[in-house]
Amino acid sequence: MTTRTNFGELPRLDQAAVAVFEHALALGGVERRRPDVPPGLGLTSQEVERACRALLALRLLRPAPDNPDRLIPVSPDAAAAEVVGPREAELTRAAAHIQAVRDELQSLMPQYRAARRARSGEEGVTVLPDLAAASAMLTEESARCWDEVFTVQPGGGRSPRHLRGAIDRDLAMLDRGVRMRTLYQHSARTSLATQGYVERLTAAGAEYRTAAELPDRAVVFDRSVAFLPRRANGGSGEGAVLVRDPDVVAYLCRSFELHWSGATPFRGTSEAAYKEVGGSLRRALVGLLVEGAKDEVIARRMGMSLRTCRRHIAELLEELGAASRFQGGALAERAGFTVPAAPDVVPEAEGMEGAGGTGAAEGIGESEGNGEAEGGRGTEVGGVAVGGC
Q: DSSP state, 344?
């Protein structure tokens, strides 16, 4: 009968053990009580004895049937089967048990969600009036999330402080097997803090894409609960609205998938990170100029500072040889700048390489140098960074 092996106490196969094993192979065995110490091994008798004990524990040596004092070599395959096989079987049984328990617990989620909706008394909508309430509920839902979370995060790059607060929670969700997807605006690509965060989380399995324009902030867990900023009656976005209504959440999911399919993958640090989206940025900028949008509106919608926005408008007008914004819009349309690029084409980012250069977010939901970023302070969906919020 195979003896159970304590896997954590197994010795390592060091050079001395390998030398003694090769010596046993050459001679057909070694003496247990007084092991031979051939000059060629360069080992002391104590080192040979320790090597023999290690090889016995690893089942690479065993007592000869007719002479227990002589140790004979064993096939490494047989040794591995005896030492590691039981542990592998144990781990397999443990993994199956863990998955069974997970499935049983998750089977209760429909009842739980129905009960939460019934208790809310507000048709699936709960107002979280301030930062503290929104943060507490967002933390609770992120800990409960088991399948997927997606985040829509307009504006520029995220502040290092918020990213530091998000990384442990996000990694914990990824470790649980949660799929994490985040949509940023193109201007976030210029933020070093956001680049580093995205690079690290991408390595852990998260997915990121960017688009020229995005709707308002949103975080959705398991396609069953959503967090939105408070916007009713001209609200600044302070606090959040927690939505459990299935139809509203389903609409948010469809909207996210639509924006996700048209966005550009973002994996963090890359010399070409901004050139990949330069054409998309230019088309969005030209489109807003054609609409007659003011600089403040363009900056807000493109997630960059007002100073950066004006610099890019000036560069574009100079490139087109336009004397006015109206003429620039007309010339850009004539030049085909507003025509969407083919899906497989990454257009050159002429004149846009530095777009959004100072757009890293410093306040909560506020781009650098742009105090008029949409929603102002408190629009980080409760101020808690989930998926890079």
A: T
Q: Is 238 buried (19+), middle (13-18) or exposed (0-12) by CB count in 10 A?
A: buried
- Token readout for 52 is 């023999």
**CA-CA-CA-CA dihedral for 314, 316, 317, 322, to nearest 10:** 170
b (16+ CB within 10 A) / e for 291-328: eebeeeebbbbbbbbbebbebbbebbbebbebeebeeb
Model confidence pLDDT, tens digit, residues 337-381: 655 554 433 333 333 333 222 222 222 223 333 333 333 333 333
pLDDT score at 206: 94
Can you say whether the dihedral through the CA atoms of 307, 311, 312, 317 is positive or negative?
Answer: positive
Tell me: the pLDDT tens digits for 97-134? 999 998 898 888 888 777 766 665 545 788 888 888 88
State the Cα–Cα distance between residues 3 and 86, nearest whole angstrom. Answer: 9
Taking Cα atoms as reference points, which of 346, 338, 309, 348 lies closest to residue 156? 309
- Return the biggest CA–CA distance within the chain: 103
CB neighbours (10 Å) of residue 333?
Answer: 15
Query: Which residue pairs from 171-179 have beta carbons closer than 8 angstroms and sit at least 24 positions apart in sequence?
Result: 171/201, 171/204, 172/143, 173/142, 173/145, 173/149, 174/201, 174/204, 174/205, 174/206, 175/204, 176/145, 176/146, 177/146, 178/145, 178/146, 178/147, 178/148, 178/149, 179/147, 179/148, 179/149, 179/205, 179/207
Give how far the C-alpha of residue 182 lies from the chain's centroid of Cα atoms, to the nearest Å: 8
